[in-house]
């Protein structure tokens, strides 16, 4: 009985053996592994054997079934984008600031134009030129991180700027992968199709992200006790591929679906663990993808197109260095940081390969473009460390030849940019309202479409006539009601809004227009749902009026329902941050912050002393949340409160902190007090651009005095600040953890967000 091995298995074995050998070689010479994979692909592609004498070439193994390898490569792209999403985080995107956004947009647009112009001037067709510009626009995250680590530069100011730019570029790359197919398929009506594609993508992204953040972290919380590494791996990959299918069904790319699911899972408490358990699979299929890239590298094409390769390489290095530096400079950084950042971004990498593969799959790019771009990527990969290393010298040389007046202007511009670029109050109000309209407009539109497409046909299939239509409309409007309330009222009367409203010099018509826009959108959505179901004008008017009256009568209840939805969403969105906050005190032991109750015995040394004298927070890191004395309860007590025998003290801290605190109190063994209407909770809020806390030190905010709440921790970027002192200044994007009575904490969050 003879057994034959499938060509797919033989090819996969050859790919992995070749990749393994080349990675060892490139590791030995401290070169990026991506280049090793590309060289491995070149060696087994069959091209090399064709250029060697027949008696030598026949002994070089090559791939037998390239179509099957293309499937593996597609899977590789999916897992590469899934891994990128796990590292991405939309919260991180919101924190990168104006510098990163301005730089990324400046660089991408400039290189897109330069790449297109080069292709056009060399006589290439429209699509080759467009894809060339798209590939040159994006820098390589992998290569930059490797270079920073090798040169020991991580943590410097310019490296933080570069990482922010890379985050924005990742999102731009995803946008390109959606727009390029739309351009290919609709060249005759380009403008309309592009706008439609962008609108669909925004609708899809917002809807899926909100639904994912609302549902997945909650589900993970309930099933976490059943999850080990194996089940987490299966669930993570299953969710990834499920979103890929959904994305393709919605006429988007599989890569977009993988990226979205990765970014959603990144916000869960298990995000880092999912990233860890899926990394080997991402590395495996990523290697197959990059080897497949090398397999398409025809050496003869490199010889034939040596001139264009040199021109494109020089344009990439010089263009990206200049325009990236320019983008950082105009965003307000000084010349040195600008040039260091710009020189660091002067290369192309992984996304260039993915976009090149997209062009081939759409059959709109020429065969020569793929190897040309790979050659440029290889060259710029080798030059990147030197560009970063010598950026300081380039700055010093450029600074010397600058006229004194120009040098002074650049320095003054950099130092004064924060004042120049600061949004005024009207812009902040406008931005907040646009955000609310977009988010809740999309949610309401999605509910309306789902009702028309699925709910209404289902109900009418069982209940005919106007009764079925009425039931469908009632159910739809009930689901919409909390979000309609949010659209009409959420973040409307903020501090900035009231400031403008009370300003006699400001035209109140602008503010009235914002409120009117919200009302019109809400009315249009409700009218659409009613109009679709009822043909009679009288019926439509009657239903609309009844709904409007009911909505007004039950507005407070609807606001409470919406508040619950928003609380759950924000809790899930910040769940990973809360986990980091709770584990910061003892990361190695993974100790959680929690509340515990201590009883003061008559022999305790703390009796008769005030909380200010005892200073538990400084000594042990714990926060006194409540003191229970007989039938009285003092929540968030001040420093003047004294401790008496038999007082029950509820404190917030880690197990280690509790043990140290308990030794001073001497008697610790009480169960926590039963929760009641004065329940003390730990909750988080985000400092937004219109928050009254923004730019103020903690001592000036008087949170403890006014709200009887206590700030116990702040997350800023990747840093956790436990028990911040009075000099701590709040920045936009800070995630603040407060403890206090349930209602008082919620009132505080309503006032400052």
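Sequence proposed for the structure above (753 residues):
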């Amino acid at each position: 009985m003879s057994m034959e091995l499938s060509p797919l298995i033989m090819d996969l074995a050859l790919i992995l053996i070749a990749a393994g050998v080349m990675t060892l070689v490139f590791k030995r010479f401290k070169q990026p592994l991506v280049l090793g994979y590309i060289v491995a692909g070149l060696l087994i592609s069959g091209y090399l054997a064709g250029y060697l004498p027949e008696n030598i070439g026949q002994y070089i193994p090559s791939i037998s079934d390239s179509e099957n390898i293309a499937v593996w490569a597609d899977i590789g792209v999916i897992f590469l984008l899934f891994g990128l999403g796990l590292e991405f985080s939309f919260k991180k995107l919101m924190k990168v600031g104006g510098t990163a956004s301005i730089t990324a947009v400046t660089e991408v647009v400039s290189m897109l134009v330069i790449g297109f112009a080069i292709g056009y001037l060399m006589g290439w067709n429209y699509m080759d030129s467009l894809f060339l510009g798209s590939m040159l626009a994006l820098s390589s995250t992998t290569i930059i991180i490797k270079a920073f680590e090798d040169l020991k530069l991580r943590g410097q100011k310019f490296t933080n700027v570069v990482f922010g730019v890379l985050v924005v570029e990742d999102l731009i790359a995803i946008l390109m992968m959606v727009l390029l197919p739309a351009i290919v398929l609709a060249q005759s009506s380009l403008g309309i199709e592009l706008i439609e594609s962008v609108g669909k993508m925004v609708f899809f992204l917002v809807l899926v992200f909100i639904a994912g953040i609302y549902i997945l972290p909650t589900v993970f919380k309930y099933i976490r006790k059943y999850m080990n590494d194996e089940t987490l791996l299966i669930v993570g990959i299953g969710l990834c591929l499920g979103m890929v299918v959904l994305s393709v069904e919605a006429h988007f790319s599989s890569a977009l679906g993988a990226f979205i699911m990765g970014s959603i899972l990144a916000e869960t408490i298990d995000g880092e663990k999912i990233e860890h358990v899926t990394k080997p699979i991402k590395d495996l299929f990523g290697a197959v993808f990059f080897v497949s890239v090398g397999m398409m590298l025809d050496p003869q094409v490199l010889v034939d197109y040596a001139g264009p390769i040199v021109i494109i390489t020089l344009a990439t290095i010089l263009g990206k260095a200049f325009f990236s530096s320019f983008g950082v400079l105009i965003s307000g950084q000084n010349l040195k940081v600008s040039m260091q950042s710009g020189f660091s971004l002067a290369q192309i990498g992984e996304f260039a390969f993915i976009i090149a593969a997209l062009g081939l799959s759409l059959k709109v790019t020429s065969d020569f473009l793929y190897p040309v771009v790979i050659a440029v990527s290889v060259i710029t990969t080798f030059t990147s460390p030197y560009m970063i290393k010598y950026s300081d010298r380039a700055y010093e040389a450029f600074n010397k030849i600058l006229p004194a007046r120009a040098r002074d202007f650049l320095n003054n511009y950099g130092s004064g940019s924060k004042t120049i670029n600061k949004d005024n109050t009207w812009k902040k109000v406008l931005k907040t309202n646009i955000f609310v309209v977009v988010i809740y407009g999309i949610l309401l539109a999605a509910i309306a479409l789902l009702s028309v497409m699925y709910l209404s046909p289902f109900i009418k299939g069982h209940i005919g006539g106007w009764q079925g239509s009425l039931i469908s409309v009632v159910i739809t409007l009930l689901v919409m009601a909390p979000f309609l309330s949010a659209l009409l009222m959420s973040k409307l009367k903020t501090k900035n809004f009231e400031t403008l409203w009370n300003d006699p010099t400001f035209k109140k018509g602008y503010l009235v227009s914002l409120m009117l826009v919200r009302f019109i959108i809400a009315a249009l959505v409700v009218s659409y749902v009613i109009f679709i179901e009822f043909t009679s004008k009288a019926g439509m008017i009657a239903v609309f009026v009844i709904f409007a009256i009911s909505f007004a009568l039950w507005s407070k209840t609807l606001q409470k329902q919406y508040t619950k939805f928003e609380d759950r969403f924000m809790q899930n969105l910040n769940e990973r941050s809360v986990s980091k906050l709770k584990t910061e005190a003892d990361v190695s032991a993974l100790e959680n912050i929690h509340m515990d109750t201590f009883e003061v015995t008559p022999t305790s040394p703390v009796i008769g002393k005030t909380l200010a004298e005892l200073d538990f927070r400084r000594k042990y890191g714990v926060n006194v949340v409540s003191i229970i004395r007989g039938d009285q309860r003092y929540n968030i007590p001040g420093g003047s409160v004294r401790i008496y025998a038999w007082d029950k003290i509820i404190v917030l801290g880690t197990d280690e902190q509790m043990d140290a605190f308990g030794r001073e109190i001497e008697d610790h063994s009480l169960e926590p007090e039963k929760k009641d209407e004065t329940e003390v909770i730990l909750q988080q809020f985000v400092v937004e651009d219109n928050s009254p806390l923004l730019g103020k030190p903690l001592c000036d905010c008087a949170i403890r005095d006014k709200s009887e709440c206590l700030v116990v921790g702040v997350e800023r970027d990747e840093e956790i600040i436990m028990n911040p002192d009075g000099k701590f200044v709040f920045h936009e994007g800070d995630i603040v953890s407060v403890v206090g009575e349930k209602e008082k904490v919620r009132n505080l969050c309503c006032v400052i967000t």
